[in-house]
Amino acid sequence: MRVLFTAVAAVGVTCGAAFADVPANATYAKDVAPIMFENCTDCHRAGQIGPMSLLTYQEVRPWAKSIGKYVGDRAMPPWDADHGYGPWKDDRSLSQDEIDTIVNWVNNGALRGNPKDLPAAPVYGESAWTLGEPDYVIEFDNYDVAASGPDQFYDFNVQTDLSEDKWITKVEILPGASEVVHHVILWKGDRGDSNPTGWIGAWAAGADPMQFHEGTGRMLQKGAVVRGDFHYHPAEESYTDKTQVGFHFSKGEVTKELVNLWVMNSEFAIPAGASNHEVKSRYTFAEDSHLISLAPHMHYRGKDFVYTATYPDGTEKELLKVSDYDFNWQTAYIFENPEAMPKGTRIDCVAHFDNSEGNEANPDPTKTLYFGPESYDEMMIGFIDYIVAPLYKVVAPLGALA
Known about the structure:
Blueprint: H1 28-39, H2 57-60, H3 64-72, H4 96-107, E1 136-139, E2 143-145, E3 152-159, E4 166-174, E5 181-189, E6 196-204, E7 210-211, E8 216-220, E9 225-232, E10 239-241, E11 244-249, E12 256-257, E13 259-264, E14 269-270, E15 277-284, E16 289-297, E17 302-310, E18 316-322, E19 333-341, E20 346-353, E21 369-370, E22 381-388
Parallel strand pairs: 8-12
Antiparallel strand pairs: 1-11, 2-10, 3-9, 4-7, 4-8, 4-11, 5-6, 5-9, 13-22, 14-21, 15-20, 16-19, 16-22, 17-18, 17-20
Helix pairs in contact: 1-4, 3-4
């Protein structure tokens, strides 16, 4: 699990209600460190995305009030999905007991406690690859991003030298300059042809590395071209980016191609000043299928997003609701158990946008918004990963994919 605390001072913390499993006199060593080791330090350590390390009490203590505020407000960990859906793999949200433990600890003085109670800190390797060393790595060319200015878009193509077709099971994208890389979309092309023929995956700020559902994968053909569509968002300083991509290949049997679908609407117009403008999209499954993951995507005016399934018998089920969408965190919600979508099931996506002055993130509330690639434009996409039924049957051991 990954957590990123914004480096902003907090002046007060609101304590939640007491729960039976919340210690009355929590200490860092006994009660808080285990939560942080499990949920925070993957990012909050040297060389990672977190702005400060949280591996020791000495490092945590100066940030105690900020930690308590953002945890208490559920702004951290970054997990926007409403409760009651899923269940999801790699759910980063804390339980109410964990939240109250941290908040109470802060309110009671953020005490260290007995060092003998402190569990062993997690041990991290020196590699930048959080999923372990990849089987195959590609590097895109350097790209210079000047300070300030408008967003920049650039396509890179890399000719692979694979000697045989490979099933991809994990993908990790390492931006060379995460300060200015807004997102990367990976496509595959035929040998010697950079035109995209299939989706591989994507990275955006706040996204975890991609680990495909067990027994599924995406094929990377012998000698294929990998195309990277880059979106750069210039900062106050200039940077040079050199992004790498690490692929992990199947060591066992893959029996289902993982299909990516964009349930999108590109024909909308969001009026200037509108505080709750609705946009819809839909898709109907032509074959019996199973949903693997859902990932809502909007930009700065995105407010909320809902996926609903209407089955052939007319019954409905809300699959995912994000009531407080945050453009800063692009999260894919992966089902613990694939969700059956019988042939004829319709997926409806409904999103609302706040283009008013009341939206503090709104760059320009006087502008009518249309679908477009820049962050200051808008998008309405309900990403879906699915497989065609019947649900895969594992033929060979897949322990190597875990």
